[in-house]
Amino acid sequence: MKAIRVQQTGGPEVMELAEVPLPQPKPVEAVVKVSVAGVNSIDGYFRDGRFRTPLPFIPGQEGAGVVTAVGAQTKTVKVGDRVAWSGVLGSYAEFVVSPEEHLVPVPASIGDEQAAASMVHGLTAHYLVSDAHKLKTGETALVHAAAGGVGLLLVQMARAIGARVIGTVSSEEKAQLARQAGADEVIVFTKHDFEAEVKRLTDGKGVEVVYDGVGKATFDKNLNVMRLRGMLVLYGMSSGPVLPVDPAKLSEKGSLYMARTTLAHFTATREELLARTSALFRMIAEGKLKLRIAKTYPLADAPQAHRDMEARKVAGKLLLIP
Amino acid sequence: MKAIQVKQVGGPEAMEVVEIPLPQPKANEAVVKLAASGVNFVDVYFREGRYKAALPFVLGQEGAGVVTEVGAETKSVKVGDRVAWTGLQGSYAEYAAVPAERLVPIPQRVSEQQAAAAMLQGMTAHYLSHDTYPLKQGETALVHAGAGGVGLLLVQMAHNIGARVIATVSTEEKAKLARGAGAHEVILYSQADFEAETKRLTGGKGVDVVYDSVGKTTFEKGLNVLRPRGMMVLFGGSSGAVPPFDLVALSQKGSLYVTRPTLVNYITTREELVARSGAVFSMMATGKLQLRIEYTYPLAEAQQAHRDLEGRKTTGKLLLIP
After folding, report:
1. Which residue among B241, B248, B265 sits closest to A254, beta carbon to beta carbon?
2. What is the pTM of this model?
3. Which of A27, A295, B24, B209 can pair with B133 through a Cys bridge, CB separation 3.0 to 4.6 Å?
4. Which long-range contacts (CB under 8 A, 24 or more apart) does A205-208 make?
5. Is A268 in Cβ contact with B250 (below 8 Å)?
6. pLDDT tens across B169-194, in order?
7. Would you call B244 an interface residue with chain A, using a CB distance cutoff of 8 Å?
């Protein structure tokens, strides 16, 4: 089968199209013919060596497709099932092998592209608003990178809950996307100081919660825009890791809370993964959550997809089609 | 009237009994004849100069007594009312002038000594267990310094909620006190590693919340005994301040939460102050919360009270009786 292979970590050019053997399932695994693979920033971290895995490897964590073979002891999937997944390394390929517990059923109302596009970003947005900080009607949330992959979904979900959403974006074009997704207020942080703007927009009170996938660049100011006993949820660090934090700051700024979260801890059991995924698919099927698929590429163009992702010019999801 | 005054910061001997004029109420104040004044570590910090106050000043942050005079614009209290307060300097005295909005009524079945003893530590234990991390029945909490002033009250409140309490203490004597307060498990941290013990006692799962007033010596290990998505509530630093910590640890150890609360942020409005003190007094009146008033001293023996407190041999509340 064809797959993208990384033999040495580095820039996008280290991803080559290769012919590799078809994977075989272990007893509790299934082999899936990949219809669509999602492109995520974490794929870039594995490719450039920031996250480590033995070489050579096939990148990609997310996708959707059809089961073509199952191991002897699998119970939850059978050949012919339409499934989607995240957290399974090797998705940039015609076929991928996955533990069956990572595979979730895709309902008939959801297309393969939608399913693949929603697993990482959609599940992340879902756990952020429903668990990491359970957002309530009437609360105000600050969403950084509101036109980003997670951001656009987070804004829609927060609005559906009835929260007021203030988004930050880097350009006017992205501001429009964030507004279309439902952001009540959008701050173009390249033109306006988000700290001053958030204070102004909340009459000095600050927000109940900050959802931040940016990290280093936004951290200090975040602590100044939260209301008393507010919550900062850090779920990523696109601008680099946050420097060590003095806990005394949290009390000085008003008995604040802070969490550093990752999706794996919010899909830790099979029950939680299924419940979260089905809630997400339901929102998509009912038209309450619009996915923005920015571009699809043939599998061989994975290096270009990574270049586009890392240039930060695309707003929405990038997909590879094997 | 007699009062304990600090003219120059220093050791316990810096506290002198002086004769000063009776305070007069400003328009929004009431004068209270003190029945009891609580002795707290914060008093030591002011006496030593670690916390700053304009010299000379009358020490003491907590008290209870009877209103003897009110200012022209006070509405919430009248002469003869039994009241208590915390967070204002000047309670080591026969009388204190206090803004009326800071005075809370003492119900009939609570004595003035009990009320004075409960304001700071009782309300702290209350906000920790009911608001900072609202404990639920069936959850497990680790309470460090489980026989300390706040610790003994926190253990009782957590127990009353129906949570399982694991307490750490330094001696057998304190272990007995923590058990008496309702701790299900007590770890003598001088004899056993609390990280290993807590893991063992929770079948490796970890606790839902850690309440930590010890700080420097317990923080890191505390993160290791939290379940995924559990919360570290750091509310003091009796062993020293926790140095800046790396947020990556929070995600690696299971999408953990950290907060550093202080009482003042949990009694920010008159409504909140009255509701919280009322809740604590009602627990006392119904026998659900036992305060351990260990020593009472005549006002003139404030020096001895501080020596005893700083010697860390006391396990309950110290009061000065004017």
Report:
1. B265
2. 0.93
3. B209
4. A206/A230, A207/A139, A207/A140, A207/A141, A207/A142, A207/A166, A208/A133, A208/A135, A208/A139, A208/A140, A208/A141
5. no
6. 999 999 999 999 999 999 999 999 99
7. yes
